[in-house]
Design brief:
Among the domains are: about 375-410 and about 440-610, Clc chloride channel; about 625-640 and about 650-795, CBS-domain, CATH 3.10.580. The chain contains 30 helices and 13 strands. Helix 8 runs antiparallel to helix 10 (about 295-310), helix 10 (about 295-310) packs across helix 11 (about 315-325) and helix 10 runs parallel beside helix 12. The radius of gyration is 30 Å and the shape is elongated. It is a multi-pass membrane protein.
Length: about 800
């Protein structure tokens, strides 16, 4: 066999690597640990060249439960093996039903464990979201002042608690501005405005700095949105600590601080990460889920649905988001549990009532009107705009994120980067009334009907709409787009849903104002068409509706969501009448975005970080067969005779173990010199007929055999077959290993189309596939090989 000609720069975490092994070669699955926990230094594919188990302490935990599996950091789980183990565990419990009453109680507890677990997750997710919403709203208002009599109240509730029955943004006696604390009361003076600006910037920088310090010191995984990593985790990737309790605590606190600082980010995306942290923590109360990685992902899928439910007040949208975007494995029972979990989370959020409106919908609107067919044209234009602006944002943000990742100055100084971006954001945002207020308040104002707006900067004043307000909206759109490019990806908890909705709402309101003026101009013309005969703002051309449709268009262009996005927007606003306009804008946004670039923002960040993720919605555009993608098998010299440089050089070569002939010492030497997850077994090096596959669990068997069987020594021959000869008198005892041999490894022939192989990886959750011809092992295919092959093809 000849050596594989491709070099690997991807290095999958469950990659089958090739190393020599005594008189025979072996196939190995990479067990890379990936280094430290800092996300800035995270390289999930970094290989460990020489992992040696020198003492008993270095050996894996031999006390692991027999029905559960353990995986190392940055590994991919074996779905089929874990599900088979769960079936075996369930079979053992079912046999105990006859032991009344304990057996029956244990069986009932096991059957209801999933529902109880998602109930706890829903309760905790709803309470967490309520606390974060209340805390972020209060801290956001601290940038402008404080409620002197009741410091724990935000601006709106402070004014509600006063004797003022009516107030504008700045006219509330109970709310004390910071310059007033310094005895400056002339609000029109330059010094007053300058002090207000300084306090606004100072509070913003202080909050974001505190958030990034918490992340850097206590939980590096608490930064960012978390959705790209959640998608990979739900597909079977293991990232230790990413869903841990410290990540949950720090991300919750950091999310309050970062969203209150006024940065162009949202807290809705990270809520999915927080809900999955809650699901992971509660799953350990139920060993059925906590100790089985495949079953745990059923709880995590339900948790992701609960995260969207509490983020937007959209339980059904959360279930569809988990199904469409997040989950890789989504059986029917998981959908029921996801629905239940999202329902419980929504009820708790309604009980907490963080917005003080007795509503769970984040941006509730009440449009007492209907749309006309001619308005489908501007709705489609908003879809075109959303697809274009979303693709531009993805391109620019990925380029900037790649520069940040490769730059020592930016990558090594996340605190200074956060402080600088916050300073620029706050300093510029202050002078625009739409960017000065929180993103939630801005979006609500843009969605509102004209009769609902009472402030002096009303967008419905026809004299100002085309001049001041129109210019402010245009400037806000440009600023939001540019600053969000640099903000998304910094080392604080930051989401992208609300900034995208904000940009779309601004663009939609601008178009709504324009269409409003066009309709007014046409109606002023004698003999106009009946299509333009309507009461503007009552029967047609509601600018707030355009803002809502624009929000869906831009969010769809950035994330490429479709069905779940429409349902989320419906639940977000409570406007069932306008589903069709939202669907039109979303579909045009999807078509245009996919025409420019196939990947959404989350898929682009997955590729940027090098995660081993095969998108279930992607297509394999090449006409190839398995033999063109596999890494071929070869024959090599004895490993002990080779230097470490030679071993590293042979990383990408395939080898095999024979079913008899290798000694216990040969196997232990192989395991010391490699860091892979498994080895295939063949009849002999000459025939190469496949017998089975042995995982690295063999290390436990060898270690136990040395301790418990005195005649098993280094020279004992290891047998993976039934025919084991008797030990020679005075000689070493043979070592029988057939019981731990996987007799049915997943295989394909060398002429199997790669489309079929990829479907096997996606639908069966495989870690690797052996390639054979007439029963002989030719090579192996892993996720790494597929992703690397596709990358090489795309670069040609």
């Amino acid at each position: 066999m000849e050596r594989a000609g491709r070099s690997s720069t991807l290095g999958s975490t469950d990659d089958v690597e090739l190393e020599p092994s005594g008189t025979s070669a072996t196939i190995h699955l990479d067990m890379t640990a990936g280094g430290g926990s800092s996300s800035s230094d995270f390289n999930p594919f970094g290989a460990i060249d020489d992992v040696r188990f020198k003492t008993d302490d270095d050996l894996p935990d031999v006390m692991a439960p027999p029905f559960f599996s353990k995986y190392g950091d940055f590994h991919t789980i074996d779905w089929q093996r874990d599900l088979a183990r769960d079936r075996l565990r369930h079979k053992m419990i079912s046999k105990k039903k006859v032991d009344f009453p304990l057996g029956l109680l244990q069986s009932g507890w096991d059957a209801g464990a999933g529902w109880i677990c998602v109930l706890f997750v829903g309760l905790a997710a709803g309470a967490t979201a309520g606390i974060i919403d209340i805390g972020a709203r209060w801290m956001s208002d601290l940038k402008t002042g404080v409620c002197a009599d009741r410091f724990w109240l935000d601006h709106e509730h402070c004014c509600w608690s006063s004797n003022d029955t009516f107030y504008k943004d700045d006219d509330c006696k109970a709310w004390t501005k910071w310059p007033w604390m310094l005895n400056y009361y002339n609000s029109s003076s330059f010094l007053f405005l300058f002090l207000e600006w300084i306090f606004y910037i100072g509070w913003a920088v202080a909050m974001s700095t505190l958030a990034v310090l918490f992340v850097k010191i206590f939980a590096p995984y608490a930064c960012g949105s978390g959705i790209p990593e959640i998608k990979c985790i739900l597909s079977g990737f293991v990232i230790r600590g990413y869903l841990g309790k410290w990540t949950f605590i720090i991300k919750s606190v950091g999310l309050i601080l970062s969203s209150a600082s006024g940065l162009s980010l949202g807290k809705e995306g990270p809520m999915v990460h927080l809900a999955c942290c809650i699901g992971n923590i509660f799953s350990y109360l139920f060993p059925k889920y906590g100790l089985n990685e495949a079953k745990k992902r059923e709880i995590l899928s339900a948790s992701a649905a609960a995260g969207v439910s509490v983020a937007f007040g959209a339980p059904i949208g959360g279930v569809l988001f988990s199904l469409e975007e997040a989950s890789y494995y989504f059986p029917l029972k998981t959908m029921w549990r996801s629905f239940f979990c999202a329902l419980v989370a929504g009820i708790i959020l309604r009980f907490v009532n963080p917005f003080g409106s007795n509503q769970t919908s984040l941006f509730h609107v009440d449009y007492m009107m209907k749309w006309t067919f001619i308005e489908l044209v501007p709705f489609a234009i908003l879809g075109l705009f959303g697809g274009i602006i979303g693709s531009l944002f993805i391109f620019a943000n990925i380029r900037w994120s790649r520069f940040r990742k490769n730059s020592k100055m930016l990558g090594g100084n996340p605190i200074y980067e956060v402080m600088l971006i916050t300073l620029v954001t706050a300093a510029i945002s202050y002078f625009n009334p739409f960017t000065r207020k929180s993103a939630q308040s801005m979006i609500q104002q843009l969605f509102d009907r004209c009769e609902d707006q009472i402030d002096e900067d009303s967008l419905c004043d026809q004299n100002k709409a085309l001049s001041i307000a129109f210019g402010q909206l245009l400037w806000a759109l440009i600023f939001k787009f540019v600053i969000t490019i640099f903000t998304f990806g910094i080392k604080v908890p930051c989401g992208l849903f609300v900034p995208s909705i904000g940009m779309g709402a601004i663009a939609g309101r601008i178009l709504g104002i324009t269409v409003d003026q066009i309709f007014r101009a046409v109606q002023a013309t004698p003999g106009h068409s009946d299509y333009f005969t309507c009461q503007i703002g009552k029967d047609c051309v509601m600018p707030g509706l355009y803002a809502m449709v624009g929000a869906a268009a831009v969010l769809g262009g950035v994330t490429r969501m479709t069905v779940s996005l429409v349902v989320i927007m419906f639940e977000l606003t409570g406007s069932l009448e306008f589903i069709v306009p939202t669907m039109v804008a979303t579909m045009f946004s999807k078509w245009i975005g996919d025409g420019i670039s196939k990947m959404g923002i989350y898929e682009a960040h997955i590729e940027l970080n090098g995660y081993p993720f095969l998108d279930s919605k992607g297509e394999y555009p090449y006409s190839t067969v398995a033999s063109q993608v596999m890494r071929p098998s070869i024959h090599r010299q004895v490993a002990d005779e080779m230097s470490m440089s030679d071993l590293r050089e042979l990383k990408n070569e395939l080898s095999v173990i024979t079913e008899s002939g290798m000694t216990l010492g040969d196997l232990e030497s192989l395991l010391r010199q490699t860091d892979f997850n498994g080895f295939p077994v063949v009849v002999s090096q000459n025939s190469m007929h496949l017998v089975g596959f042995i995982r690295r669990d063999i290390l436990l068997a060898l270690h136990t055999a040395r301790k418990t069987q005195p005649y098993v020594v280094t020279n004992s021959i290891a047998y993976f077959s039934d025919g084991v000869p008797d030990a020679m008198p005075g000689g070493p005892a043979p070592l029988r290993l057939r019981k731990i041999l996987d007799m049915a490894p997943m295989t394909v022939t060398d002429q199997t189309p790669m489309e079929t192989v990829i479907d096997m990886f996606r639908k069966l959750g495989l870690r690797h596939v052996l390639v054979t011809k007439n029963g002989k092992v030719l090579g192996i295919i892993t996720k790494k090989d597929i992703l690397q092959f596709m990358r090489n093809k795309n670069s040609q």
